[in-house]
Amino acid sequence: MPTLSKRAHVLQESPIRKLDLTAMKHPDVVFHRLNIGQPDVATPAPLLEAIRAFQPPVVAYGPASGLPACRDAAAEYHGRWCSDLRREHVAVTTGGSEALLFAFSAICDPGDEILVPEPYYTNYNGFGTVVGVGIRPIATTLETGFAIPPDDVLDTLVTERTRAILFSNPGNPTGAVYGRSELERLIAWARRHDLFVIADEVYRRIWFEAPPTSALELDAPDHVVIIDSLSKTYSACGIRLGFLLSRNAELMEKIERLGQSRLGPQPLAQHVAIAALGLPGSYYDEIRETYKARVAAMMDAITSVEGVRANRPAGAFYSMLDLPVDDADAFAKYLVSTFRLDGESVVVAPGGGFYANPARGRTQIRLAAVLEKQKLERAAEILAAGIRSYKGRVA
Ligand SMILES: Cc1ncc(COP(=O)(O)O)c(C=O)c1O
User: Fold this and answer.
1) Where is 325: in which H helix or E strand?
2) What pTM did the predictor assign?
3) What is the pLDDT of residues 181-237, one digit of tens each?
4) pLDDT tens profile 60-105
5) For residue 151, how far is its CA from the centre of ligand 1 (angstroms)?
6) pLDDT (tens digit, 9 = 90+) per residue, 149-188?
7) Whose CA is nearest to atom 14 of ligand 1?
8) Which residue stretches of 193-280 are H helix?
């Protein structure tokens, strides 16, 4: 039997998706899926129209860093935050996921480390494993609204292998939003240590009170790398189209080479991106209102449950909750395989997978406000009943 790589053996199973397989074994149960960031919001009509209109005689490869028209559209769109952006500052990728993988690959050697405020988007672990890079967590807590600790604490985490600090803003899974003063501080800190700043801004358009500051707004052209995506902003997760942006010319040249190794991002998706990036400003107001109402409904319902602690998200559409259970992983399995309320149950993402050391998230879950308001309220009701039943069972 030929052997697989050590890397393959340590690849994590996505904690967000793993309960889905169990749920599929119960086709008779109505599951409210709050585990995956897959919104049920309709993809805007101009994107669907772009799909229908795409009728090339040959579906050909395109350029490695994307079609010029798509790169130009992205440079113009991001020009809202940074006035001197041009085509060469944009690489089109297969989702924000590939942009992250490219950023990790171009910035780090095997054995290097990236600092990430924890809890963090669990797939950062997967990209780290693929390129041999360690994710070093920066501990944050629910009690402090997941605030990033002061510079002197960050200083203690830097080693000679540290290459970058990575964060999502707004945050998945925390819903934390970093504003201007926080961004200025983080970028000044990173520059002092000569680290890259990888700002994962795939939720940038989804905020409730005050907008996040894009790292593009600050004057650190050599240090800042931005990740963006069509997935959440345009409810187009399946189109698999993202962007990596940076004004660091050397980095962008290497990103172009990484792009050449997989040829090009798909042309259909890029035509959809051009349509998306041209939507009027009112579209973004609408989606913000949609998610604001959903998140408020979910949080009102869930925080009234005895023993549940949560930070109110300021952006994105997730919340990390601390539950009055001993083991959120076992509880999440119990919900999917055993607990039913009138034939319904909920699928949640256990918190452990969002931490480098899963024990830190042992009593936590992440919820995604990706369903209509009434469904979210019903899901919260089922969750509350599930907590009572689970505690009664193990007591
Ligand atoms: C923080 C964050 N970054 C990146 C991604 C990847 O997005 P994409 O669908 O564009 O690959 C996600 C997806 O959920 C995410 O939550």
Assistant:
1) none
2) 0.95
3) 999 999 999 999 999 999 999 999 999 999 999 999 998 999 999 999 999 999 999
4) 999 999 999 999 999 999 999 998 899 999 999 999 999 999 999 9
5) 27
6) 999 999 999 999 999 999 999 999 999 999 999 999 999 9
7) 37
8) 249-261, 267-277
The CA distances from residue 36 to 14, 56, 320, in Å, are 11, 34, 13
Mean pLDDT in the chain?
95
The answer, yes or no, to whether any atom of ligand 1 lies below 6 A from the CB of 117, is no
Residue 306 confidence class, pLDDT cut points 50, 70, 90: confident
Are the C-beta atoms of 272 and 265 separated by less than 8 Å? no
Structural domains in the chain plus CATH codes:
6-42+282-394 (3.90.1150.10), 45-280 (3.40.640.10)
Atom nearest to 237 CA in ligand 1: 9
Contact present, 151 and 189 (Cβ < 8 Å):
yes
Ligand 1 near 231 CB (within 6 A): yes
CB of 270 closer than 6 A to ligand 1? no
Amino acid at 108: C
Cα(206)–Cα(163) distance, rounded to whole angstroms? Answer: 29
Q: Three-state SS for 249?
A: helix
Using a 6 Å cutoff on CB, does residue 121 contact ligand 1?
Answer: yes
The finding on whether 173 has its CB within 6 A of some atom of ligand 1 is no
Cβ atoms of residues 62 and 260 within 8 Å: no
**Pairwise CA distance, residues 163 & 107, whole Å:** 7
Mutation test of ligand 1: which of 17, 97, 118, 241 has the most ligand atoms closer than 8 Å to its C-beta?
97
Lowest mean pLDDT among 9-23, 26-40, 119-133, 380-394: 9-23
- Looking at residue 21, its pLDDT comes to 87
Distance CA 154, CA 139 (A): 10
Residues 255-277 have a mean pLDDT of: 97
Helix (H, G, I), strand (E, B) or coil at 395: coil
The rounded distance, in Å, linking the Cα atoms of 318 and 370 is 9
Q: Is the CB of 95 under 6 A from ligand 1?
A: yes
